[in-house]
Each structure stands twice: as C-alpha cells, then as structure tokens.
Specification:
With 106 residues, the protein is mainly alpha-helical. It is built from 4 helices and no strands.
Length: 106
C-alpha cells in the first residue's frame, strides 16, 4: 500500500466544485425545497420555446440528411455504446444543437 496519504474529502470537494461549475446553470430546474426554480408552467413554456427554436434551426440547416444521420448516430450510441461513450455522444450532439439554435436566434 502506498505511503502517501489520500485526502478523500478534498477530492470529493473538488468533484462537487467541478460539477457545480459545469451544471450550475441548470440549478433552477431542480425544484428543491427552498430553491428558487421554475414553476411547472414556466418549465413547459421554456420547453415549448426550445422546441420551436430547434425546429427552426433544423429547417434552416443546410443539410437535413446530415442532421438525420447525426440523430441516427446518437441513437446508435445511446443503444449500443458503453455508457461513457454514450454520454460523450449525447454531450456532443447537444452542443451541436445549441450551436444551431444560437445561430438562428443571434
């Protein structure tokens, strides 16, 4: 066994901090007691708005065949790939969708 002391509390704190940095912007969707979050009506409205933006983004995409292939690739990864690869594929897909949506709304 190694003679180096492992500070598990510091490791856990570092992971929590990294998680909050990455996902803190979604905190309003948690709905925890005492947390100021979205009401159900606000969340549904946001989801509808996002659906409209993505639909427009998809329609102005220069290559709908490429978009369909991207969706098929994501589905294949979610079904067949190991979890880390599936998560990476989903994150990549969401980033591309965000980029398309930002291009339409900018």
């Amino acid at each position: 066994m190694s003679s180096e002391a492992v500070d598990y509390d510091a490791q856990v704190a570092a992971v929590r901090e990294a998680f909050e940095r990455e996902f803190g912007r979604f905190a309003r969707f948690r709905g925890e007691a005492g947390a100021e979050g979205l009401s159900l009506a606000e969340a549904e409205a946001a989801l509808r708005e996002l659906g409209f933006v993505l639909a427009v983004a998809d329609r102005v995409a220069s290559d709908l065949d490429e978009l369909a292939a991207d969706h098929a690739g994501l589905l294949d990864a979610l079904i067949n790939a190991p979890p880390p690869s599936a998560r990476a594929a989903l994150l990549d897909h969401l980033r591309r969708g965000e980029s398309r949506a930002m291009a339409v709304t900018a």
